[in-house]
Every structure is written in structure tokens, then in C-alpha cells.
Amino acid sequence: MTPFLHLAHVNVARGENIVLHDINLSVNAGEHIAILGPNGCGKSTLIKTITCECYPIAQPDTTVSIFGRERWDLTELKKRLGVVSAELPGRQTLTTTGRDAVLTGFFSSSTLWPNLTVTEAMRTRADEVLEQIGAVPLANKPVGEMSAGQQRRIMIGRALVGSSSTGSDRQMLLLDEPSNALDIAAQQDLRDLLRRLAQQGTGILLITHHVSDIIPEIDRILMMKDGRIVADGPKSELLTAPHLSALFRTEVHLTQKDGFHHAW
Prior knowledge:
6-stranded mixed beta sheet; Iron complex transport system ATP-binding protein; 8 helices; Rossmann fold; Metal_Ion_Import_ABC; alpha/beta; nucleotide-binding; single chain; ATP hydrolysis activity; 2 domains; transport
């Protein structure tokens, strides 16, 4: 499979504290992976390292390769990385329509500024993505008038618009706690959408501390604790009550239904 990400011996500091310790991770395009761990374990810093918002400590054996390259023009890289977080890109996004918000993914901008040129091919691709994510009715609706779940759907479209579904530019979604601030119905809608995208071949790298966010199509689990990857393997082996109890440092009970796991 085409490589998406390769990290070797990556250490990252935030201020004076080292928050990621000796991270070694390889991800292929099209893989479905969940990174699971308690708050403060370094999950979001790992995403920021992948997107070059944080940089590793320079060491001889450290390697960061994204889409097979170690050096990138960050403007171009941001167009290739489909990142979805719990926050909108900027307050200007609130007054942008759903279609235009998707189009901003071509430019990694918060809105369609006057200096940006949108081509017909871009508009066609945006309409394809709106269809793909089931958001055609939101095309002309301002993002600020949408529910949190609708906004998250549009941000997923924004993340997908710059990539294709096959080849070296295969779609990869990086989702950082995507169900935060969503009610039960919106969480279910989000999981249904992610399932459909996964079944269509979109790669998913999901960061969460909610076991119920892990859709059935995710088959690989990484567990993080104290800034380290402490486990990496098949979901069937790692998503167990003993492993979760050790990870979250509390007694965890686990049930499974229709491919989803629920913990309490």
C-alpha cells in the first residue's frame, strides 16, 4: 500500500516539557486506525506533529515522512492533509456557505478571500464531495446557521475536497476528537458518515478517548499514555476491558453490539 506517514524516534517538546517520547509509527494510505488514550496523553500533539504545527526535537535518528517525502512546502502539505478538529478554521467561516466552506479546503483558508481563484473544476469537485458526505442541502446555508453536527459534516467535506479516492493522493482523514460537543443524534450521524467513507476507501486516523467513536471499520488500535505509544495492534486484541483499565488507570467494563464497543 502507498505510505501516508512514517515517524521514527520522534520527540516533541511543548515549552520546556517533552510531551511526546520516542514515537515510532507507520501508517499506509487507506488504513483505518484509532489512537486511544486519556486526556493529556499527547494525542492532539501527535496530530499537530503530523500537520507540522509542532516540530520534533532535532536528533540524528529522527525521521518524519509524509506521503513519502521528508520536506514539504507547508501550504501544499496543508492542502493534502484532511484534518477535522472540534473547532472551525476561523470566525469568518461562520458567514461562509456550506459549498464555499468546502471550497476553502483547496486553499487551507477560513473563507474564500477575494484574492483566491476558484476554478470550475474545483466547484465540480466540491459538489461531488457534498454529495459524498450527504450535505447537498447545506450547500447554500451559512455555516453559522448550521447545527454542530452539520458543521462537522461540512468540515469533513472541506478536509476531503483536495484529495482523490485512488492513487498516491488517496483520501486520508485525520479526526481529532470529532464527536466533542455533539449530542447523541449528531454523534450517530457522524459515525454513520465515517462508516460510509471508510467503506468507500477513505483512510481514517481517528484520535479519541471515547471508545464508542471507534467504528467497526477501524481494525487497528494505537494506545497512548504519558506521551508514548504503549500498544499498537489489532482491535480484537487491544480493545478489551483489561487493556482499557490499564490505559485509563481505572476499572473499565466493556460491551459490544453491532460492531461497536461501549465502555463504562
